[in-house]
Write a structure and sequence with these properties.
Chain lengths: 95, 492, 486
Amino acid sequence: MSLESATIKKIARLARIGLDEAAVTRLQAELNGIVGWVEQLNEVDVSGLAPLASVSGTTLHLRADVVNDGGDREAVLANAPGREGPFFAVPKVVE
Amino acid sequence: MLTDLSIAGAAEGLRRREFSAVELVDAHLDGIEALNGRLNAYITVVADQARAAARQADGALAGGDVPVLTGIPLAIKDLFCTQGVRTTAASRILGNFIPPYESTVTANLLREGAVFLGKVNLDEFAMGSSNATSAFGPVVSPWTRGDGASLVPGGSSGGSAAAVAAGLAMGATGTDTGGSIRQPAAFTGIAGIKPTYGRCSRWGTIAFASSLDQAGPLARSVEDCAILLGAMAGYDPKDSTSADRAVPDYRSACTRSLRGVRIGIPKEYRPEGLSPEIEAMWESGIAWLREAGCEIVDVSLPHTKYGLATYYIVAPAEASSNLARYDGVRFGERVAGATLDELYENTRAAGFGAEVQRRVLIGTYVLSSGYYDAYYLRAQKVRALILRDFTEAFEKVDALLTPTAPSAAFALGEKMDDPVQMYLNDIFTVPASMAGVPAMSVPAAVDAKGLPLGLQVIGRPWDEEGVLAVSAAIERAAGFAARPTLRAGVGA
Amino acid sequence: MSYVIEGRTGPWEIVVGLEVHAQVVSQAKLFSGAATAFGAEPNTQVSFVDAGFPGMLPVINEYCVAQAVRTGLGLEAQINLVSRFDRKNYFYADLPNGYQISQFEQPIVGTGKILIEAPGMESREIGITRLHLEQDAGKSMHDQDPTRSMIDLNRAGVALMEIVSEPDMRSPQEAAAYLRKLRTILRYLGTCDGNMEEGSMRADVNVSVRRAGEGYRTRCEIKNVNSIRFVSQAIEVEATRQVAVWEDGGVVDQETRLYDPQRGETRSLRTKEDAHDYRYFPDPDLQPLVISKDWVDGLRAELPELPDAKRDRFVAQFGIAPYDASVLVAEQANAAYFETVAAGRNGKLAAAWVTGELFAALNRLGVGIEASPVKAADLGALLDLIADQTINGRIAKDVFEDMVETGRPPGEIVASRGLRQVTDTGAIDTAVATVLAANGDKVAEYRGGKDKLFGFFVGQVMKAMAGKGNPALVNEALVRALAENV
Ligand SMILES: [Mg+2]
Ligand SMILES: [Zn+2]
């Protein structure tokens, strides 16, 4: 399968990475190389196999319903590149 | 020289008051001062903090019983969040991020008395095998091969490996997602172990691919790795994938007898065109283990050749999601935009380097509607086969022996225009990552150009002790004594 | 009687399914230890996990899992002992990680059902498709600054149950009844407070229309409707819009719409072409969630009596009408109040007083039953005063009003105001004689055949006795006196 430049733009949009035309062209070549290479997996017979999402084989530990975190607004906001009083601030979102 | 000591030796010397922790730390800081300009191993050096910690360690040492790493100077891969100390993941996008928390692994090391010298360089977000993708510039290997070319230290824990090899730290933390501890260890002539997935907490370590990422140590000896791993490992209720298992005495495993231990030699790790030097080193390793009393068994891991392709679907998929949080809103770098989407796009275009962008886009693609089944789901199924290969092999043998990497360190700039060529570096390390099993690289030989080569020992899940025992036997038999050209107190 | 929309070309049936997001009642968030309390100062209930900081990892809250299981049990649903969390990936200012942790492929609760009832409607079963656990997002505020939106992450990471129904509802009334019943069940279980104004219960409404006997046509989803009334309105408005589109020869597009209650219309949320590619995949930070059958059975054993069971019991135990019973059980507090009033008394009378006088008074006062000035025991005592003929029904209403105003017990009111009914036949006969004497013309008319005047005489006698006459004895005395030959 070969990725069109429109596909590159679509996934760049999904990933919110702004690309200029030159980057699209470069990435199209690179990603086609990688995607073409990983398609060797089509050789493998995977019929009847369950996908493996985790190797750990364990199950979730459950935490008690106790409030023991949060409550430090300054620490949460201290690294914010755009802050307005008690809030994170971003360009206005029009719904 | 203090910077040539092993961790085990230095801990002994400190307890005997042969030298002080301050002297030990100063010796390393001097080395950093002299060499870091050339090696670029450290992104951030915390000299004052390290000296203060060393003074405290000296106080504790004077008081008697102290934890195992008291006064031992270490380098911390800049992927571990360190409270109050800038943490970059070697990316522009984290800007001047100062974590308000300490990762579990580094907190465990501090609890054992370790002194942190600073934060060491890596491939951006640990994505790379050469340490060339760092936003803070490439790390240069302290080894040279005679043609004047600057060599890569391997990656992604390239700063960790270079610092330890050059005597700019006694040991370092690394993380390994597809070989990022083992391959740089092999390239720089030191030891490094990736423990079983779930052995070290991932809490507070910046994620690359969550189902693969594991922290582990790099050090100049197997025993030093064992000491460090013992401190780093342990159950952490803050990480849902952390295993609730007791941490064994890794150090004592290093002297275990190997009589009757069955070592598997997987035939798939001998691809066509494997360099004769690598092949010869592997044969030596087999011979050493046989002499140590091991039984050598030929085994097959039939899906080995699909490991890399599987990895290059699974890891980018997870990364594309893990890195979505770097959006210029709550921390890190922001590049303004007229709208929120423009802010995101500008921030992430400027903040992520080329390799990170590549992987985020690949990951987005393989998860996107219409492609999920063909790529991601299929890769997860092949991953099940890779795990099954290991499970079946470990019914016949106790550990596997393979080369760590298909070549010695290459020069900066080599292999760098074709991502797939670069990815092939990890061909021998990736399968163990996909299966989550422990694996270690131990230096075994030097090639014709005098560059180190490493052997990889792969063990059963949770059997880091077996891996350390076999690796220590190889280390003893190999008698690897080569040292890099550039190192603290020498060649500066 | 089924609900139809009469179009230009004939009748249309509507098809409605609901996705309800119900905020789980818990102290801490689904995957972090930050608090969930409503109304806190912005960004004060935020952990680094909730804010998506580097290296932060989720750990699941056991109580939230238990709440989801309890809810599943309350919906008579299948509980999945193994479930899994997935990431739903999209960028938004109030979604710190760039993904929401949700359950896509393997939810914790599978199919179940809800029985709905409304006046004039047969009770009907509505299918539940699934219930899954997921994280809430934060809050973006767009009206505080001309050029910027402000982000508050207090709500980010709070546990939600998304409860998805089958497309089984056929009218706005059924959708409203479904939401009321779901809310009742959640409140009984204590798993969600059901407060739609505070956003702790929000509904996404899927609406389509079709001709009788047809398969499903394209549906539209109306997002985030925040009151039951608006849900009914939105369904009606949207169905009418779709009928017009089809009848004009157009095609309804599958899309997300918003209901604007001010304008009484739905409008398209012009979704960008990429909006629906959420790239779900299993969250690699979270293993499968495995719970044991024993644990589930333990939760089942501790479930409260649920509204349907309580209604059936009320009907059987107190002999009241099923609809009255369902009104009484809609709120647990009402049901408990009723049970106190009805215990050992006439159930029908108790139901009539609770759903009649009491509810009217509470409505007038604008208070809930917890704040009722009339305590259940006092209302019971009032019924006792009626039963033992201490007061008559008419006086009882006066006493009740006094109780509402003063909160005094009825016995005290009756005693202090001398409202005990008069059963002394001598006194009644005297009052009858006085009234008849004063209304000779009317007596003549009555005797001339104008039977209806009997009520007039009763009223006059009661008036003369300040309302306290025993109605039966007054009647008897009047019948006797009016029959006497003159
Ligand atoms: Mg939904
Ligand atoms: Zn939802």
